[in-house]
Amino acid sequence: MSRHEIGVDLVDIDRIVALLGRFPDRFRARVLTDAEARYCGGKVERIAGRWAAKEAVSKVLGLGVRGVGWREIEVLPNWAGAPQVRLHRRAAARAAALGLEDVTVSISHERRMAVAVAVAHLGTGS
């Protein structure tokens, strides 16, 4: 029988607007990978969606954002445009230690909120 881990996060887009207004370059450099920054451009909804997705994935890892760096969780669109998660360094090591496979995420935004749900399958070897 397989098991799953689930993480959810909800972000107020106005909070991201405020952070970008106060620390635009620092915020992007700290939170987004170069590829994510190119994808998001100036679209605050995309940036907020990435923030929510990274928070949701960190919850799947059982760490919260204190256990891994923001840039260690990368969320980019796949060939069909759906968000795809790539884990790096400590995030990848934590997922492997937990036996997590196939971390996927869904992102949505409506008006001033962005939400992300992350799901990871626990392999049969764990």
Give the name of the CATH superfamily: 4'-phosphopantetheinyl transferase domain
Spatial separation of the terminal alpha carbons = 11 Å
Coarse shape: globular
> Which structural class do you get from the secondary structure elements?
alpha+beta
**Approximate helicity band:** 40-55%
SSE series: EHHHHEEHEE
CATH architecture field: Alpha-Beta Complex
Kindly identify the CATH topology.
Answer: Ribosomal Protein L22, Chain A
- Beta-strand residue fraction: 25-35%
The description of the largest β-sheet is: 3 strands, antiparallel
Q: How is the largest sheet built, in terms of strand order?
A: 1-5-4
CATH hierarchy class name = Alpha Beta
Q: How many domains, as an integer?
A: 1
CA radius of gyration is 14 Å
Mean pLDDT: 92
As residue ranges, the low-confidence spans are none
How many helices? The count is 5
